[in-house]
Amino acid sequence: MKHYSAFAVAREALRYHTGWERAWRSPEPKKRYDVVIVGAGGHGLATAYYLGKNYGIQNVAVIEKGWLGGGNTGRNTTIIRSNYLQDPSAAIYEKARALYEDLSQELNYNLMFSPRGVMMLAQTQHEVRGYKRTAHANALQGVKTEWITPERVKELVPIINLHGPRYPVLGALWQERGGTARHDAVAWGYARACSNMGMDIIQKCEVTGVRRENGRVTGVETTKGAIECDKLGIVVAGHSGQLAEMAGFRLPVESLALQALVSEPIKPCMDVVVMANTVHGYMSQSDKGEMVIGGGTDGFNNYTQRGSFHHIEETVRALVETFPMISRLKMLRQWGGIVDMTGDRSPILSKTPLQGCFINCGWGTGGFKSIPGSGWGMAQLMATGHSPLTEAFSLDRFKEGRFIDESVAAGVAH
Amino acid sequence: MLILNCPYCGVDAEETELTAGGEAHIKRHGPGSSDDEFHDYLFMRENPKGVHFERWRHSNGCGKWFHAARCTATLEVFGTYSAQTTEPPKEIREAISAKRPGWKWREFE
User: Where in this chain does the record put each Rhodanese domain (chain A) (predicted)?
Assistant: First the structure.
């Protein structure tokens, strides 16, 4: 793998950019691997990367039905934050956020990590109390957040309307080192690093069955033939239920459509991420100048990667009240992704009833921000059988009543 | 936009009139049930990519609960039926069979 650097750009400029090589190989699958990961999104690739980097397990294949990073990795609103109330959540999201800080250097791939600050607006008295509580919890967890006044909100976001009739801004929870990153680049950077370690990334290869013997996984059936493996990691977000069924167990998840949209590009007007959970909307400005907007999920099961129009209407209506200047913006694109929601709105990173088979799913609406932390923990779990990061997120927590109840903590999808 | 016919008031209601109520025909478990039964009853849900049965409420209309049979992969609606039943009626199952031969959902097919 050639190193990317300013010097490389200059060198290639002199020879008409003929020397760039492909960032990752696209090999045919081998007969056997130590570990097979299903799903080449951010979480799957990060899992493979840390298996290789932290545990020296490099005979790994990452199998992808579509193309690399083409699922929710390429469909989210790229927000990174770790201001969670519950300790296990804060631990894994903060691990991810901290890893994002120097991941570009580590992967030698520009992820455009931009710690521009994430602001969660409090627009009801209930939210004021909730976010103050979260700020105190974060102080104990070692996550740097603070409660800020409406005046400070206005300083940071001049385009905001503090005194909206329905949704006045009463303050905000502010995480200075939260922000955004280029979502595709996260998948691409991990893929390049994995490929460089000799791992095989196999795209357009759908898993059609899971091979089992005596309660242990022995391999997978795919559209490119059978592949044997010692350990199997299922990291497929919306389609986790399908894969689990092939592996012979059930999951407490339901798949819903979550939508996002972007406006036409405009001049820089907002250099932080603003989330307004009361009205279910969040917004940031991309480097191209587009306002990137996300909203809530539909209420019903859906695999179509498109959501209901009225959810967009609700999100935009509320954001226009809080940011009057966006009222005449044209929206350019709108899309949906399939998110896998658990009962307590926290993910599942766990061993499964099938020996040697591990699952990483249920990230719901909060998957992108957690990619490095999730990969780190999942790799540790798969390599050693135990990880302090993922311990609380096990599959049996529902039976044991150990919820990590972020749905109550956040009050909304998060 | 999803449009469901309310079997009570007969209105073709679109999504903003309706509230989704999750999986249909869930058997309630009460005192004396085992941990596994409670676990499945409270948390395990069918999540098919295809034929699905759901509860819906005509909340901004007549206010009644009803059932719907729907495809989660295409958003096609196979039919709606009364809430006063513990399983999908025969005509709904036949309507689904006509369009999705060999379908299966829990113990129904």
Answer: 35-79
A4 belongs to a structural domain: no
Query: Is 50 exceeded by the pLDDT of residue A414?
Result: no
Q: Is B20 helix (H, G, I), strand (E, B) or coil?
A: strand
Among A315, A342, A369, which residue terminates a domain?
A342
Interface test with A, best of B2, B43, B47 (most A CBs within 10 A): B47
**Which domain covers residue B75, as residue numbers?**
3-99
In a domain, A41, yes or no: yes
B36/A399 Cβ within 8 A: yes
Task: State the count of interchain CB pairs (< 8 A) between A and B.
Answer: 55
**CA atoms of A311 and A395, how far apart (whole Å):** 31
pTM of the entire predicted model = 0.93
- ipTM exceeds 0.85: yes
What are the tens digits of pLDDT across the range A300-335?
999 988 888 888 888 888 889 899 999 999 999 999
Does residue A259 sit in the same domain as residue A155?
Answer: yes
Average pLDDT over residues A355-379: 94
Point out the domain boundary residue: A284, A308, A342: A342
Closest residue in B to A257 (Cα) is: B72
